[in-house]
Write a structure and sequence with these properties.
Structural class: alpha/beta
Oligomer: single chain
Number of strands: 14
Helix content: 25-40%
Radius of gyration: 24 Å
Shape: globular
Length: 475
């Protein structure tokens, strides 16, 4: 690591984004890459700390100092082996992870210039694919079947881990392709779907079976046994081909990784007006269009020529902004009911090494957007059944004398924000599950509520270990 002193002479250098006037005309990935010399130089900035807080911050436990050292030395294959030892899909997290590890980097505390772990990670895995370091690994089978319901990041991580343990893994997905929010939520300009398809091809070569258009409703715990039998599961499949019985291995388990399918709604007057949509209605349809799907004029959700209002200040709202620009909107306004976060880099409420809750400006925000905070939505206004605006009220939050949630107090007079499209990006409701049989395990957002892709993957891996432990005890 240049005697572990490169951080004193080499500044953080990010690859940055494609030029704004170029990228808003297509859905290609906006992020650029550094050349090999600069990338290795960035890896050399890692201090190889005695107490690496990046290990602690990463839900997967990625060992950034180890693979950064290999990358700096030019040993790309070793860097990939170290990276993939903890992260099954670094091509996903290398593109869309908020990099919790970087916020916990000691260099972020000292100079606010952490090591470029996320970009380094993406470069390592892309190099590994290009050089052929990544090849299918087909494990010896143990004769036991496991079903994974849901093919998002948690389900894919669980399926991958169980498959490598030797189980016969079948993944059931209600949509027409795997990926979950990776495919139907995150826009192509952040994650090209060919990246997902490349990994799915590898997983299939390694023996995982995928079944699409297959929503499943599992029975709750009850009956004569505490476990769901494979015969009961096959009955739930209906006309689909049954799963293997397990042969001499015996046992059976199910992993539920169905995510958070229910978006938080905004039940105010005018909700039924044409032009009011959940964010994922726009994002999922646009991704399907790019994949070749066709929609009628009445079905098509497009921001072309419209003033767009995004209600919700998180990442999903940001994705709506970027998508609206690429569809040819006239303007975009984003409102958030909570106060504006502090302008970083430091956050007194969440000091290092915790993740700072500071103002985030994404590539989509840079493309043009009016952003407002402390705004409450009162009513959708329309004419002839079509949305023409949203009545909003500026508010402020005051401490609750009885404790608990602060009190929302009106400030000023209501106003109308003109728009022909309103997108609800206010998060998702945590799913409620029945008490399942003992051999059914829930993971990812289905268990925790909406969270990060990296946390969903970590949860899927943990669920796979629990399944393995359970089935070994049963055997």
């Amino acid at each position: 690591m240049k005697e572990n002193t490169a951080f004193l002479t080499v500044h953080r250098k990010e690859a940055g984004y494609r030029p704004l006037n170029d990228r808003i005309h297509d859905f290609g990935e906006v992020e650029q890459t550094l050349n090999e010399k600069d990338r290795r130089e960035q890896a050399s900035r890692c201090m190889n700390c005695g107490v690496p807080f990046c290990h602690w911050a990463c839900p997967l436990g990625n060992k950034a100092p180890e693979w950064n050292a290999a990358l700096y030395k030019g040993d790309w294959e070793m860097a990939y082996r170290l990276l993939s030892a903890t992260n099954p899909f670094p091509e996903f997290t290398g593109r869309i992870c908020p990099a919790l590890c970087e916020k916990a980097c000691v260099l972020n505390l000292m100079e606010h210039e952490p090591t470029t772990n996320r970009e380094d990670e993406c470069s390592i895995v892309e190099h590994a694919f290009q050089e052929g370091f990544i090849e299918p690994h087909i494990p010896e089978r143990n004769g036991i079947s496991v079903a994974v319901v849901g093919a998002g990041p948690a389900g894919l991580a669980a399926a991958n881990a169980l498959n490598q343990m030797g189980y016969h893994v079948t993944v059931f997905e209600k949509n027409e392709a795997a990926g979950g929010l990776l495919r139907y939520g995150i826009p192509n300009f952040k994650l090209n779907k060919n990246v997902i398809d490349r990994r799915l091809s590898l997983l299939q070569q390694e023996g995982i079976e995928f079944r699409y258009g297959a929503p499943l409703q599992l029975p709750p715990k009850g009956g004569e046994t505490d476990c769901l039998t494979i015969d009961d599961f096959n009955k739930a499949l209906g006309d689909q081909a049954p799963l293997p019985s397990g042969g001499d291995g015996g046992g059976f388990a199910v992993v539920i990784a169905t995510g958070t399918p229910t978006a938080r709604d905004l039940s105010i007057p005018g909700r039924s007006l044409k032009g009011v949509h959940f964010a994922l209605e726009l994002l999922a349809q646009q991704n399907r269009v790019l994949a070749g799907a066709e929609f009628s004029r009445d079905e098509r959700i497009t921001a072309k020529g419209k003033d767009v209002l995004v209600i919700g200040g998180g990442d999903t709202g940001s994705d709506c902004i970027g998508t609206a620009h690429r569809q040819g909107c006239r303007s975009v306004t984003q409102i958030e009911i909570m106060p504006q976060p502090p302008v970083g880099p430091e956050d007194p409420a969440n000091p290092w090494p915790n993740f700072p809750r500071t103002l985030k400006t994404t590539s989509s925000h840079q493309e043009g957007c009016t952003r407002r905070w402390n705004i409450n939505s009162l009513e959708f206004i329309g004419k002839d059944g079509k949305l023409t605006g949203v009545k909003v009220q500026e508010i402020e939050w005051k401490p609750n004398p009885e404790g608990g949630r602060p009190l929302m107090v009106e400030k000023g007079k209501p106003e109308v924000i003109k728009c022909e499209m309103a997108l609800l990006a206010m998060g998702f409701l945590k799913p409620e599950h029945p008490v399942y049989p003992d051999n059914v395990f829930v993971c990812g957002d289905a268990a925790s509520g909406a969270s990060l892709v990296v946390r969903a993957m970590a949860s899927g891996i943990k669920a796979a270990a629990q399944v393995d432990q359970f089935l070994k005890k049963k055997s």
